[in-house]
């Protein structure tokens, strides 16, 4: 009998889940309520897509495993995305000072491009790699089945075949051997589970009140090779956390995202954008864009809280249902983890399907628990910073949090003057190494002994980059 899987959502998590399922079922139907664009451009169901996004090396490797022969990296680079090494190719002011740029081989390449380009490239690559996946414009409205087993979804389509819940929408029941909820931060899966009799899902929220403001600029002539630049917030300063990130993306553009926690938020006013950037802990980002040509207005986002649903610990969990990506947890976007966590979760689904098969008892529970390990790593990093900003709401720091924060703060200070410590931290922040790696005796000793080099007094720019900055550095109007 033919086997069918349904995936709710056609963004990163959904398309990679579809790729994982395509090797185990006869048909994968991806339900997407948005009319997907034919070219990389914003869509209504992904409002955070306008802001800065980075694909970590762990996420890139997971995609390569899920879409063999898809050449996702090659397609992205051919379309204008950039690849920059985290330890050598970024100019970063961390909470404890400027990080030196390594001359060693960089083991942490970051893929940088617009979210629209990355989503479109992944979607096209998945569809080109298999004929078993098809996207259907429809809106999931509930689950079929019982608390013991989910057997499909309820969905609606409007009279023209699009998603909708209007009076003219047609309701349908779609049977499936496995349903994957990859519908993102707006997921309704908790309500759907409650309809089946499963309640009491544990949740945590840490909300620093972060507001994101993003604007696109034309890359100034002569600055095409200027590296990504980042000024981070200091969570221990006692003041609202303000940060800025400039990323070179496809189309000879700079994507600039500014952020501020509660009490220090940026506004949507174009007149305030450059002054906000100039007022960060260092004015580097502001100086770069002060004389650059803006290509868009300012886009604001307030949907930035850290929220985690502990599906893996639920006393009851139905066979036939898996939740992945932002449907499980969302993070402060400053840390650039979301896409990679989604890819790693889909890889766990793929590996469990390869090991046991889609009809194996307990499959959904095992996938949920495996994916939760990746979620926990990203969650710990994000919350470990955000919970210290003034006015934060939600989960309060525990004694363990305080001890860990003191240690990682000290390690961050040492990392500004030690490649070994910096590389170890990069392995954890890019989700390539377990956080326990930071407790290795050699790293403990390095952290205790302190920085091996004095702190930098300014950004670690090459002579050529300093000349570019001087040429761009004009007073803000």
From TrEMBL:
Residues 1-22 form the signal peptide. Keywords: Signal. InterPro entries: FAD/NAD-bd_sf (IPR036188). Residues 456-477 are annotated as: Disordered. It comes from the Bacteria. This is Pyridine nucleotide-disulfide oxidoreductase. It comes from Streptomyces akebiae.
């Amino acid at each position: 009998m033919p086997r069918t899987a349904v995936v709710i959502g056609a963004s990163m998590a959904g398309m990679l889940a579809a790729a994982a399922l395509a090797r185990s079922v006869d048909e994968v139907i991806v339900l997407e309520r948005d009319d997907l664009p034919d070219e990389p451009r914003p869509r209504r169901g992904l409002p955070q897509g306008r802001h800065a996004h980075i694909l970590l090396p762990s996420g890139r490797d997971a995609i390569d495993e899920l879409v063999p022969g898809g050449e996702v990296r090659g397609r992205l680079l051919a379309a204008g995305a950039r690849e920059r090494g985290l330890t050598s190719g970024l100019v970063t002011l961390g909470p404890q000072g400027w990080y030196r740029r390594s001359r060693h081989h960089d083991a942490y390449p970051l893929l940088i491009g617009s979210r629209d380009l990355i989503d479109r490239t992944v979607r096209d690559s998945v569809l080109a790699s298999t004929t078993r996946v098809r996207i259907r414009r429809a809106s999931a409205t509930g689950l079929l089945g019982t608390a013991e087993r989910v057997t499909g979804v309820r969905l609606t389509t409007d009279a023209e075949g699009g998603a909708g819940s209007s009076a003219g929408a047609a309701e349908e029941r779609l049977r499936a051997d496995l349903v994957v909820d990859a519908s993102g931060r707006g997921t309704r899966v908790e309500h759907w589970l409650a309809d089946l009799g499963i309640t009491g899902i544990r949740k945590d929220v840490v909300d620093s009140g972060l507001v994101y403001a993003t604007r696109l600029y034309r890359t100034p002539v002569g600055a095409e090779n200027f590296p990504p630049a980042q000024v981070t917030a200091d969570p221990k300063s006692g003041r609202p956390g303000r940060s800025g990130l400039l990323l070179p993306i496809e189309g000879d553009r700079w994507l600039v995202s500014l952020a501020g926690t509660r009490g220090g938020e940026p506004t949507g006013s174009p007149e305030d954008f450059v002054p906000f950037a100039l007022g960060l802990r260092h004015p580097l980002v502001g100086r770069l864009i002060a004389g650059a040509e803006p290509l868009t207005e300012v886009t604001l986002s307030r949907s930035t809280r850290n929220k985690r649903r502990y599906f893996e610990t639920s006393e009851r969990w139905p066979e036939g249902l898996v939740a992945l990506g932002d449907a499980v947890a969302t993070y402060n976007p400053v840390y650039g983890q979301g896409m990679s966590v989604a890819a790693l979760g889909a890889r766990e689904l793929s590996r469990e399907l390869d090991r046991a098969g889609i009809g194996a008892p307990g499959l959904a529970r095992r996938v949920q628990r495996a994916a939760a390990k990746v979620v926990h790593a990203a969650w710990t990093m994000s919350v470990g910073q955000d919970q210290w900003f003034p006015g934060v709401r939600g989960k309060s720091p525990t004694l363990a949090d305080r001890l860990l924060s003191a240690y990682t703060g000290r390690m961050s200070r040492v990392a500004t003057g030690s490649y070994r410590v910096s590389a170890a931290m990069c392995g954890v922040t890019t989700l390539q190494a377990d956080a326990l790696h930071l407790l290795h005796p050699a790293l403990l000793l390095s952290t205790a002994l302190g920085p091996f080099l004095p702190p930098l007094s300014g950004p670690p720019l090459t002579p050529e980059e300093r000349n570019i900055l001087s040429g761009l550095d004009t007073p803000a109007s």
